[in-house]
User: What shape does this take?
Amino acid sequence: MTRSEAKSQPVKRPLEGIKVVDFGQYIAGPAVAMMLADLGADVVHIDPPSGPRWKHPADAVLNRGKQRFCLDLKTERDLQIAKDLVQQADIVVENFRPGVMNRLGLGAGEMRVQNPALIYLSLPGFSEKDKTYCNTPAWEGVIAAAVGQFTDMGLNRILMGINPSFSPLPLASSYAAVLGATAVMSALYSRFKTGFGDAIEVPASAALMEGLAYNSMLVEGLPDRYMSPREREIEKRRANNEPFNLGYPELQEFLDPFYRTYVCKDGRPFYAVCSSHTRHPIACLKVLGIWDDIQSTGIPTHSAYLDMDEWPEEADCTIVSYPLSRRWAEIVSARMKKAFLTRTAFDWEQQFGEAGVPGCALRETKEWLHSEHALLSGSILEVEDPVYGTMKQLGNICWLAGDSAAIDKRPAEAPTSRDENVLGDVEQLIALWKAGERPVHARHSSDTRGWFDGVWILDLTNVIAGPTIAGTLARFGQM
Assistant: This one.
């Protein structure tokens, strides 16, 4: 949907009337404020006097839907303007090092004395309480190196002998942005009941560990039945002092056949992800048309919940539970390789989808950005940016009923430097904010209950995403 089409649809968003001041730069801070803007908040983004620090198209995406102004916080007049904005705001977002905002007189403590309803989110690289690292210039790579992302993430890295293994993915900032936005929304919910805001710190290093837990997790004394062929190979090589030097093609043969990539008739890879449910492996083989053949080989099919002493004689695994043993993995994967070569990747994608079996043809990012599905679903939007023209941008992170686009306000052109003529616009905005309604303060400002105390949530999910959501919310109250 184009911007003009989106603007023609009046949609009331849940954060309309909420005022946000965004001091963030680069990814984490601006991403939080972008999500709040997409949900209808009135967001003002503050750039330094020389203009945006990140002169990149990504800056336009992360600051869409916001009003932008350049302020020199080292000057008395501009600093006072910033303070006036914060005093009228509902939410402040900043991702400076700990202490920077305090030295400017814009810290959470001072600002919340003047504005008790204020929700103040800080996104430093390392926590203010971490006296060793809190003053470290915490760029993305610094955080990743410090917490082990480059050294402890993934079994493939170990077997290939790549240590450290660097990644350009900004995982720390991304996790911090999502957790920061979640915390702000949680505090906002509480404020509707109490009238009082909160000071929140979400260190990017801590946020990164939330994500790495599933990929870098070490379980001491893991029973053999749960060890994958890769984990067994790592143990064997360490016990025998063998080198870790597997090449990528060799490494593929250590992967479970239901959790790996296959080449199809058209040369496009297909990613099978069929190992997380007792139904999926056999259903996958039925879609491929090879289940009867594999069943005839005598592959074990006993329940995944039996103790090992109840397994059929000579069984070393079961097809209904991850992982298969190396012996059976080789038998199954050899037949799956041949089957995938009989159709194109998109044909298989259609077949897998109709059968309810997880799997997908691999695409390049450019293919996804221009795909019919991404554009029609609103996952990707075409946006007319005042600087970069027509852009492909990610859609709203939350899909709201009756809403089909992420943006309802044209983002202002990013200021390139501080302009005296524009400061009057900021002061006019402050006057408008002052004229708006303010939340009513509750009587008990010392209330230390959790944000969600008294809220009940029924969690019917499994694996990772759903339980993580429920677990995260449970931290903020008894439910």
Remarks:
- The chain has two domains: 3-213+371-448, 224-263+269-361.
